[in-house]
Amino acid sequence: MNDNVTLMKGNEALAMAAIRYGADGYFGYPITPQSEVLEKLEEEMPWETTGMVVLQAESEVASINMVYAGASCGKAVFTSTSSPGFSLMQEGMSYMCASEVPALVINVMRGGPGLGTIHPSQADYFQACKGGGHGDYHPIVLAPASVQEMADFVALGWDLAFKYRCVSMILADGLIGQMMEKVVLPEQRPRRTEEEIRKQCPWAVMGRKDMRPANIITSLELDDDKMEENNHRFQATYREIEKNEVRCELVNTEGCDYLMVAFGSMARIAMKAMELAAEEGIKVGLVRPITLWPFPTKEIKEAAKNVKGILVPEMAAGQLIEDVKLAVECKVPVAHFDRLGGNVPAPEEILNALKNELIK
Amino acid sequence: MENNDIIKVENQVYKKPSLLKEVHMHYCPGCSHGVVHKLVAEVIEELGLAEKAIGVSPVGCAVFAYNYIDIDWLEAAHGRATAMATAVKRLMPDKLVFTYQGDGDFAAIGTCESIHSCNRGESIAIIFINNAIYGMTGGQMAPTTLLGQKTATCPYGRRADLNGYPLSITPLLAQLDGTRYVTRQSVHTAANVRKTKAAIKKAFLNSMEGKGTSVVEVVSTCNTGWKLSPEKANQWMVENMFEKYPLGDLKDNDAKKD
What we know:
The complex is a heterodimer.
Chain A: E1 5-9, H1 10-21, E2 25-28, H2 36-44, H3 46-49, E3 53-56, H4 60-72, E4 77-81, H5 83-88, H6 90-99, E5 103-109, H7 125-129, E6 140-142, H8 147-164, E7 167-173, H9 174-178, E8 180-184, H10 194-200, E9 216-217, H11 224-244, E10 248-251, E11 258-261, H12 264-279, E12 284-289, E13 291-293, H13 297-303, E14 309-314, H14 320-327, E15 334-338, H15 347-359
Parallel strand pairs in A: 2-3, 2-4, 4-5, 5-7, 6-7, 11-12, 11-14, 14-15
Antiparallel strand pairs in A: 1-8, 6-13, 10-12
Helix pairs in contact in A: 1-2, 1-8, 4-6, 12-15, 13-14
Chain B: H1 3-6, H2 33-46, E1 53-57, E2 72-75, H3 81-91, E3 96-102, H4 103-109, H5 111-120, E4 125-130, E5 133-134, E6 140-141, H6 160-163, H7 170-174, E7 179-186, H8 190-208, E8 213-219, H9 223-226, H10 230-244, E9 248-252
Parallel strand pairs in B: 1-2, 1-3, 3-4, 4-8, 7-8
Antiparallel strand pairs in B: 5-6, 7-9
Helix pairs in contact in B: 2-8, 4-5
């Protein structure tokens, strides 16, 4: 039996995967339903083993700025939160993207708006994918649909963040965060030494060793022409990411009559709905975006070529559906189904929606 | 003796610190920032910490501190400097980590971060410039604006019933277990400049030695915001600011006890 196979919650898998990745620091603030990330880290005491820093900050505002600082030093740092806390982090998200620092931010979504509910939701899709803070920016948004993917996307998120000097997000929901599944954890990697970080991130603020020219991390540029140039550079990076990093899973999309597009836990439920449909002789395929940004526009367009209609089940009141409609350029009927406020649908509800909205 | 006989390299007793860059500062003539910048550069140089120093600049007049002092810098969002410094110091405990913040940044929008960083005893040095006004944005009321003091957003003078009271934050910080050294200085005379320099040096050494948080408040002038000449601004500061913000050490855990 592999020692690395274990049963744990999605939130705990995030914590363990981060330690195993060789993370340098975590800064976070408790909020349901993701507090197990901080709890697990404090329980594991990685500062005793790998030297990783773990700090419970005074707020999400402080957490995200601690992450901003750590990322500016070239360190592998992250935070996790849930929806109301993620709202507080939007300023920091904007600053980090403007400063081109590599960070990992996790939002285990709960139902809003407002203080809302502590139960699962996907209603922060716009906020995560479209840049919830000010200015033109995008984080890479990864949407796990299992506890295994919670663990896997920690490493993927950081690798992409360091590759492009951008912010990566894991956009999960309370269901994935709280449910327990079998998970294979990665092998422990050593943390990078200061020398290795200086080599990998020559821009990092680590002190002027050997009196090298000073490094300054700032998002401020009062010269409009230079700021425009900065914006063009950010956009060029985003185009590069769109070209290289789209990820999605296609299930039964070959020869299907109807298509569903769903992510995260909703994709898991949609998969069951797909099986129920097959039992009734209805051929339904599923596109599961793994990167919500960059969005699998081409893949959805391709999969939708010969279908009679598309259903977009969401735990949001019509957010993902906008990107699906854009992908198919509204040439295929696209129907919406949702459960809101922390409610999670049964597969039968999705199948009924498919029949009612698209088959009639 | 002729002047030319005296002005020789071997007779030099004072020079600009090499870490202060050869650029024009954007600070107004008469502003205290220039003096404090020089002191920060001087102390880093004298302690031989140029390779280990990391500064966190604020939002406010000192936002461009990184253009003047030639070390590695982070530029924080408004109020978040001590949160950033917390992370930098925890991730790299061997570095000198300091913030440089104004009154709006440190004592209004950043109060939560300021208090909690001090309370956790982060081994960072905080240089806190208190000039009782928002200089960068054009002279609005600060948390430290005195009662009766006129600003762009209290044009008839600050009133307690409308605007609340001026906030003296350093005595609060001195009460916290995490602070090691809390002092209030000024730079309006040569003697005060020397005292401020000694305070900054102590604060920076505390950071290097991991001794907890040091806060150096510098009661400062903003002659432009105050609409006074540099000389009158100094006078106004002495006559009005020092009563509410008296100079001296508020806490020094390393001071010799009698």
